[in-house]
Design goal:
The protein is mainly alpha-helical and 97 residues long. Helix content is 47%, strand content 0%.
């Protein structure tokens, strides 16, 4: 899949691009995928320090750069139930061997 650098998204300022890059979000695809997650849109607006209205405008500009197929893929819900959280179960003090 081709990636669309945020620097090439019309309507995004260099400051807004830098704010997203500080969170390792560098492409329109990543921004659209983030906004599609629970609380992702709120996180997106907070990271940019903008109003919801401005965040919607920036998100629309990013979405407009994607093909319909890529947009559908980035906005699709992902089932993560088969993945662990990276934590190990607690140690047992007296494990029975």
């Amino acid at each position: 899949m081709d990636e669309t650098p945020l620097e090439r998204v019309p309507g995004w300022s260099s400051d807004q691009v830098e704010r997203m890059m500080s969170s390792f979000l560098t492409t329109a695809e990543q921004v659209v995928a983030l906004a599609a997650t629970p609380d992702g849109f709120r996180s997106f607006a907070q990271q940019l320090h903008v109003s919801d209205q401005e965040a919607r405008r920036l998100l629309a500009a990013a979405r407009a750069q994607l093909s319909p197929e890529t947009l559908a893929e980035m906005e699709a819900a992902v089932d993560t139930s088969e993945y662990g959280l990276g934590a190990l179960p607690p140690w047992e003090e007296n494990p029975e061997d």
